[in-house]
Write a structure and sequence with these properties.
transmembrane helix, globular, MetI-like fold, about 350 residues
Length: about 350
């Protein structure tokens, strides 16, 4: 096991290197980089006319352009900047944002609570509904309940989260005005009492969590159903029933425990994935100041340290989560061996 973990950790290094190399290379060819962004902003503030398209340093003192390039580090060759970036990332120094002039690590930590809040609600609601629903579908396999619940689950899975979020926002936030259109809390949240703060928070988070949850039911529900059905058909279930054990005890003490393997092994990935999957569009749609919105704005503004730094963190978390998911097979079933 130790050798397997060590080998997997070594394989993470070229994966991280490849992801960063491809992303860094792409950013070198994207028009409207930080220098052009700065010049466009300067022209806009100075009344320089139309800035709808990037025109580089047209009409600007070349010396000033060189100073801006040096300020952003673009006076160095791309290869030198890339290796310098890797050296910083090796010590978890993610650099400083071009636009906000703050450390990227601090920006990520500041935005993390919003994404964690969305992720936790999405994860727990999904599992608390999907697992019992999957068990009910397995016990009633082939019934009308199984048929119609499958249709509903698959329809929810087929609708993209941002489309559902837009629908909820227009109907319940715009026309009916039952829920707020943006933000995680009200503007006067600091002035509210703690019970009012809880109610206000739940009021704001209802629509975005609903948009994220519905699409995540299908996989867990069908996985639970299929695993449960496979266990129900095994000989030990027939033996337990023949001994006269109550059906509830057979299902929940024996069948359910043995069918948990595929669910438990997907638990770490689902837990971490709930923080990031779909968060970009949902946070942008509902104006929630989390990691998704931070990534979106950094891409639009060509804030490359934030883009690359957040990508490095997301990739590292994904790789570690994948390793934990694989190790969960051994923890859930000691018979599994990594040879």
């Amino acid at each position: 096991m130790a050798a397997y973990i060590f080998k997997r950790i070594l394989l993470m290094l070229p994966t991280l290197f490849g992801v960063l190399l491809v992303t860094f290379t792409v950013t070198q060819f994207v028009p409207g980089g930080p220098v052009e962004q700065y010049m466009a902003e300067a022209k806009r503030v100075g009344g320089g006319g139309d800035t709808s398209s990037y025109r580089g340093g047209q009409g600007v003192n070349p010396k000033r352009i060189e100073e801006i390039k040096k300020m952003y580090g673009f006076d160095r060759p791309p290869a030198e900047r890339f290796w310098k970036m890797l050296g910083q990332y090796a010590t978890f120094d993610l650099g400083k944002s071009f636009q906000q002039n703050k450390p990227v690590a601090q920006l990520i930590l500041d935005k993390l609570p919003v994404s964690i809040s969305l992720g936790l609600w999405t994860f727990f609601i999904s599992y608390l509904v999907a697992v019992p629903l999957g068990v009910a579908k397995a016990v009633r396999a082939g019934s009308r309940f199984d048929f119609f619940s499958t249709i509903l689950v698959l329809v929810g899975y087929a609708i993209p989260g941002f489309v559902l979020g837009l629908f909820l926002l227009v109907i319940f936030g715009g026309q009916l005005e039952w829920f707020p259109l943006r933000g995680l809390t009200s503007a006067n949240w600091d002035e509210l009492s703690w019970p009012s703060r809880i109610v206000d928070y739940l009021w704001h988070i209802t629509l975005p969590v609903t948009a994220m949850v519905l699409g995540s039911f299908a996989v867990t529900t069908m996985l639970t159903k299929n695993a449960f059905l496979e266990e129900i058909r095994k000989q030990y279930v027939l033996t337990a029933r023949a001994k006269g054990l109550p059906e509830r005890r057979v299902l929940w003490k024996h069948v359910f425990r043995n069918s948990l393997l595929p669910i438990l092994t997907g638990f770490p990935a689902a837990f971490i994935g709930a923080f990031f999957t779909g968060a970009l569009l949902i946070e942008t749609l509902f104006s929630l100041d989390g990691l998704g919105l931070l990534s979106y704005e950094s891409i639009i503004r060509r804030d490359y340290p934030v883009v690359l730094g957040s990508l490095f963190v997301f990739t590292l978390i994904g790789l570690v989560t994948k390793l934990i998911s694989d190790l969960s097979y051994v923890w859930a079933d000691p018979r599994v061996k990594f040879d």
